[in-house]
């Protein structure tokens, strides 16, 4: 007993799967999994939990401004969609 004590948890959701959000502000949205953060038990889903981030001017982006990025959501708030 306790063979997986110090190992990270296993999830059925993998990168590239299509998932549907079942809880939170983005409930009902579907998207593709971009990354699975095993240690934090979160997933990064394309087009879900998008936030507006202020960006300072740099050499690559001299104007600066705002950038829209996806933030991770907890893996328990999504379910895999068949198909």
TrEMBL record:
Which intervals hold domain KOW?
A: 12-39
> What Pfam families does the annotation carry?
KOW, ribosomal_L24
Q: One GO BP annotation here?
A: translation
Alphabetized InterPro entries for the sequence: KOW, Rib_uL2_dom2, Ribosomal_uL24, Ribosomal_uL24_C, Ribosomal_uL24_CS, Ribosomal_uL24_KOW, Translation_prot_SH3-like_sf
Instruction: Kindly list the GO molecular function terms attached to this UniProt entry.
Output: rRNA binding; structural constituent of ribosome
Q: Which UniProt keywords apply?
A: Ribonucleoprotein, Ribosomal protein, RNA-binding, rRNA-binding
Which superkingdom does the taxonomy of this entry point to?
A: Bacteria
Q: Where are the transmembrane segments?
A: none
The record ties this protein, via CDD domains, to: KOW_RPL26
What SMART domains does the record tag this protein with? KOW
| A GO cellular component entry from the record | ribosome
Q: What does this protein do?
A: One of the proteins that surrounds the polypeptide exit tunnel on the outside of the subunit.
Q: What family is reported?
A: Belongs to the universal ribosomal protein uL24 family.
Record's subunit section: Part of the 50S ribosomal subunit.
**Record's protein name:** Large ribosomal subunit protein uL24
- Its encoding gene is what? rplX
């Amino acid at each position: 007993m306790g063979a997986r004590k110090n190992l990270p948890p296993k999830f059925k959701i993998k990168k590239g799967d299509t998932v549907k959000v079942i809880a939170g502000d983005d409930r009902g949205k579907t998207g593709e999994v971009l990354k699975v953060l095993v240690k934090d038990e979160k997933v990064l889903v394309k087009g879900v939990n998008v936030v507006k981030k202020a960006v300072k001017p740099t050499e690559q982006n001299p104007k600066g401004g705002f950038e829209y990025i996806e933030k991770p959501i907890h893996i328990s708030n999504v379910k895999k969609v068949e198909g």
